């Protein structure tokens, strides 16, 4: 049985050719094919030549999107003493110590990012079953276990995202909103590409980049020319 598409999707698929699009062309087309009745996100789906079941082929890192995510990020901080006050003064939406850990255990989840200082991680570890499946567990690699809570709060509020390759070696990242100008989306996509290249796992063999597709939340996938994206200098984009 072939997959059945709605009439809306069928019409959009007809606009997308089976070819590698130049990055700016792909993003213009992404905007053109975003016709859902809600503000759609711009998504990148990148297949890498890695097998994450091996520890030296795993990719988990953060990217700072220069043009932001277009989302309001609610940040919670678990710390002790002065660090709780520092977090509140630095724009954290929620800040606390053991009492916040207890509230989370009882189901409090009104935040998008959880930052913790290293000294409270033994207590935070018991929240693993609750936080892990939601991708909220603080980790040093994700930049969410730190003593510099003020910088971490500012970065995540400004457009820092944590991402990882899934078990099939594909990275799925939201890199802005469809409402952004194509040039801003390109700046964010370029920052993502550079971050992925900079963090190439030591065990990655052969061709690292296999395919990159961009799409809106409810739109068709558009294949991007990898070489063109990698050869693009940020100075040309900005």
Task: Provide a descriptive summary of the structure in words.
By secondary structure, this protein is of the alpha/beta class. The protein folds into two domains: 17-69 and 160-236, Ribulose 1,5 Bisphosphate Carboxylase/Oxygenase; 75-158, 3-Layer(aba) Sandwich (Rossmann fold), CATH 3.40.50. It is built from ten helices and nine strands. A four-stranded antiparallel sheet has the order 7-1-8-9, covered by helices on one side. α3 (82-89) links the parallel β3 and β4. α2 packs across α8. The termini are far apart. Pfam families: Ribosomal_L1. It comes from Mastigocoleus testarum BC008. One of its GO terms (cellular component) is large ribosomal subunit. This is Large ribosomal subunit protein uL1. Binds directly to 23S rRNA. The L1 stalk is quite mobile in the ribosome, and is involved in E site tRNA release. Protein L1 is also a translational repressor protein, it controls the translation of the L11 operon by binding to its mRNA.
Summed up:
It contains ten helices and nine strands. It is of the alpha/beta class and 238 residues long.
Number of structural units classed as domains: 2
CATH topology of the largest domain: Ribulose 1,5 Bisphosphate Carboxylase/Oxygenase
> Overall 3D geometry?
globular
The percentage helix is 25-40%
Order of helices and strands: HHEEEHEHEHHHEEHEEHH
Q: Strand order within the widest sheet?
A: 7-1-8-9
If you compute it from the alpha carbons, what radius of gyration comes out, rounded to the nearest whole angstrom?
20 Å
User: Class by helix and strand content?
Assistant: alpha/beta
Euclidean distance between termini CA atoms: 46 Å
